[in-house]
Amino acid sequence: ADVINFDGHVVLPYRFRNKKMKTLKDVIALKFKTTESEGVILHGEGQQGDYITLELKKAKLVFSLNLGSNQLGPIYGHTSVMTGSLLDDHHWHSVVIERQGRSINLTLDRSMQHFRTNGEFDYLDLDYEITFGGIPFSGKPSSSSRKNFKGCMESINYNGINITDLARRKKLEPSNVGNLSFSCVEPYTVPVFFNATSYLEVPGRLNQDLFSVSFQFRTWNPNGLLLFSHFADNLGNVEIDLTESKVGVHINVTQTKMSQIDISSGQ
Predict the structure, then answer these.
(1) Lowest mean pLDDT: which of 67-81, 189-203, 230-244?
(2) Strands 150-158 and 25-33
(3) Stated pTM of the model
(4) Taking every pair of C-alpha atoms in the chain, what is the biggest distance, in angstroms?
């Protein structure tokens, strides 16, 4: 399948021929993989208040749809459904959205949810375009607060139109920020295995005011030392450990009254 790599900046729009799209039925399918927990996968909206959005929030998939609200009356069309978890695992995930009027099937990796939208309208009215990989910047507060998708998508199909094929054949114009490429870049990581006696020692950085460290780990042991470092000039030390399956950070500072800081997190 054609694969598209989104860099977190670029947005891919599919523009409608007649500037408007009014549908009673929609079928949208795609596959994605990412290491990011936030990002807009697809978005479309209309001037009548209709919108459709599929996005990652806290590594869960959130689908939002509004077939129209009546601002003066009691009709409230916003509908939001959440599915899945830990989707930022850099594995391929398959999504299919099938809509017939107010009736929706949302399928994520063979797990299907069926629901009906709020409100009384059956048609989805979109203007100009539907975008993949993010929301085009419109100046609205909602467009800047949501992150663009960073990762790979393949087999994007919108109502029978092969979006990935159109993009590859340069029939679609991506937004002029960022890069769209057609191969999925694998993140380069080298796992290191430790037994109970081995450790990895790296040189410290002199004259640095900032101490910063990040890593991912996996273990069956509830206790163990993850990291230890002395500060220069005998100013103290920092230690990160596992104690009863919780991560603890201990900072000892020798020259201040508040000599020890202990933080615990996780379970």
Answers:
(1) 67-81
(2) antiparallel
(3) 0.70
(4) 71
User: Which strands, in side-by-side order, build the sheet including 246-253?
Assistant: 224-230, 236-243, 246-253, 260-265
Helix (H) / strand (E) containing 164: helix 163-168
How do residues 54-113 score in pLDDT, each as one tens digit?
Answer: 999 999 999 999 998 766 655 588 999 999 999 998 999 999 999 999 999 999 998 999
Question: Given 2.30.110.10, 2.60.40.10, 3.90.930.12, 2.60.120.200, which CATH number is that of 3-169?
Answer: 2.60.120.200
Q: Where are the domains of the chain?
A: 3-169, 189-266
Query: What is the rounded distance in angstroms from the CA atom of residue 13 to the CA atom of residue 134?
Result: 9
Distance CA(9)–CA(177), nearest Å, equals 6
Q: Positive or negative, the Cα torsion across 127, 75, 61, 97? A: negative
CA distances from residue 32 to 3, 163, 201 in whole angstroms, order as listed:
9, 14, 37
CA nearest to 54, candidates 43, 38, 46: 43
Q: How long, in residues, is the chain? A: 267
